[in-house]
Write a structure and sequence with these properties.
103 residues; mainly alpha; 57% helix
Length: 103
């Protein structure tokens, strides 16, 4: 599911931004500030489908989030990889991550 590539020399900025945005939107929905994803998408002036794909990032295993934050010399998925979909089970996510990172 994740593409093979050379580890990058900079943090996963797009992924970090996506994760932060996902948690912000999740809090907005859970607090009742917005009643639905369609209402929130309209307020944020984005497509509801995109909002829902980003919200899935709140389901990432903590180790994947940590790998994204650690940045330099840490391989891991990119936002574009995760936008294609991923298992919500952390063990499955980590298995795919290990297969990508290990030689």
């Amino acid at each position: 599911m994740f593409s093979t590539r050379v580890p990058r020399q900079f943090p996963h900025n797009a992924l970090i931004k996506g994760i932060a945005r996902a948690h912000r939107w999740r809090r907005m929905l859970e607090s009742g500030e917005f009643a639905s994803t369609s209402e929130l998408a309209k307020a944020e002036k984005i497509n509801q489908s995109y909002l829902c794909r980003i919200l899935r990032l709140t389901l990432l295993a903590p180790q994947i989030v940590e790998a994204a934050i650690n940045g330099p010399n840490h391989a891991g998925p990119e936002l574009k990889d995760l936008m294609k979909g991923f298992s919500i089970e952390w063990r499955q996510q980590l298995t795919l991550l290990a297969a990508e990172v290990l030689p």
